[in-house]
Task: structure prediction
Amino acid sequence: MDLHNLIIETTRRCNMKCDHCLRGPAQDIAMTQEVITPFFRDVDSIDVLTFTGGEPSLPSGVMAMNLILDTIVDKSIMIQSFFIATNGKRWSNAFVKFIYRIYSYCEENDTSGIKISGDQFHSTHRNERNEFQDKLYSTLQYDYDIENLNIWTDNTLMSDNRILYMGNAIDNGIGQQPINTRDFRVGMFEDQIQVRGDVYLSSDGHVINHCDYSYDDIAYDEDALICKVVDFTNENMRRRAK
Result:
């Protein structure tokens, strides 16, 4: 099975409580091997592998990312590029070492990158927003000889029309109703299953058809669910192929 865009929710723990967060309040849940192993059972390649949360730089996120990469390496699953979204509030050598690991494994890092959230909900001062970026870039360059990885801080202010009316945004009365942009589809090329669009793997074992869902939607919205992780198999995806 070939996946175009795999987004993995490494943990639901977070070190912030942003008013606009579409996920909703943080939860004491992190991805485990019991979710990882069945999901990757029939996966052969991934075009773009994205790590998100919660906050993936927390210890639970870093542990999950290493377990995921261990499984990928053991199964010789090809990855073209990777992407990590972080709030840049927690520095750890373990997080930087993982970046080196995933960078070293990917086939094409020209499009790999790390985005640091620097909007008004995550940071109030531009110096604070860019400090993490500068430290990460210099550490990767001088300690790991990585010079061409895209690392940037997104300082774009979040206007109301850019906030999704989900999760914490509902509680705080901000944002707009999301537009249905789900693009999950399954096809065949020769005998190989091709999954296009987003596949979102939640830390509690749901396989979802888009990344923009709250934790409540992931649990209860039947339109969001592709399948439970144990059912993400070649056999079941072949039935969906068009």
Remarks:
- The chain has a mean pLDDT of 91.
- The radius of gyration is 18 Å.
- Strands lie at 2-9, 45-52, 78-86, 113-117, 150-154, 185-189, 192-201, 206-208, 225-228.
- Residues 66 and 98 are 7 Å apart (CA to CA).
